[in-house]
Amino acid sequence: IHLRERTGERSFPIIIGTPEAAEIQRVLTRTQTERPLTHQLTHDSILALGARLERVDIVDLRSNTFFAQLVLHGEDGDLRAVVDARPSDAVALALRAGCPMRVAESVLEQVRTDRARDALEEAEQGEQPVEEGLEGSGGAEQLDAESKGGSDEADQGQEENEDEGGDTEQVDEE
Q: Which residues contact 113 (CB under 8 A, 6 or more apart)?
């Protein structure tokens, strides 16, 4: 899949496995299975335990391996848990749950493959950010993810940057 800023032009690829790609395709095409598969079972379990997947954060890149976190909140809105996850599973679960995906700014800067202007750098140098540049609060930025073979867009809302995970970019799946 290819992740890109929702309100900007920066982007980068993440290689995912066949099961995660199949789950993403099922969510995008709204395909139902006779019995719950792994990602649906995981999402249903989170809900059954009185929590919800608030967001997914891709928080680090070490030795060419991405690290992600599932941020779970309770029905009362309080943080319940932050769970380590593979980004491929995290993206599939975020799509299943309809929640935002974010990428740490430090990760995005390491892996971005685009040549887009960076509105934050321009602002730091005294230049005016472009209109569709970085928005959001507390350094959070919305991103989209493009799935090869996916045709629908999963519309995700922008979330406030919270203390967990630091400066992050938000991502979505198309």
A: 11, 12, 13
